[in-house]
Amino acid sequence: MSTDAGTRTGAGAGTGTHIVWDWNGTLFHDIDAVIQATNASFGEVGLAPITRERYRDLYCVPVPRFYERLMGRLPTDAEWAVMDEAFHRHYWALAEGAGLAPGAARLLMEWQASGLTQSLCSLAPHDHLIPIVRTHGIERHFLRVDGRTGPSNGGKAEHMVRHLAGLDGVAPERVVVIGDAVDDAVAAAHAGARAVLYTGGSHSRASLETAGVPVVDSLAEAVGVAREWPL
Predict the structure, then answer these.
(1) 116-125 pLDDT tens trace
(2) 21, exposed or middle or buried, with CB in 10 Å at 0-12, 13-18, 19+?
């Protein structure tokens, strides 16, 4: 059943640890597409290109704060509108060449096969997220898939609260969020859940370690932490 709020893909919340996965930079290995799209959008407003290393050191959510770190000031509303539109225009063209993170499909299958549940909560636009998740053949593993339906200049905290509220029977205290951004940990804490952060996406390890949650170098390690965390 697809709605503006999300797409339910499974039946029954079950018991045990429930994983809420992030998409961009976590399940979806799109860092190259992100860097290329970022630099294309920078070029449209006269900013110099950025390296992957500098991006991963400076990136943060909400995204206008990332631009503030680069520009020394927050972008004006007009600048933000141009950069945001340009980024998404270039990104979604480039994303067609990106794939799932190493081992992601197997981990999703094994988690579900073990009788545990999982869902997907992303700041990617919902109407773009659903088709690309389906393209990669993993939608069936999730109880629910939620993309962003509002403005793109905010964080994930309230979005995460709504996502968990849509998971019938899943208490926040048994949820582990797996993501690649400090904002994923912030959103988890805001919703009463826990988080594990993965170094394969948008943030450097040093940036992730400021969140005060476990930081791992593979999704398999992240799932291991989620599995072993006592409820």
Answers:
(1) 999 999 999 9
(2) buried
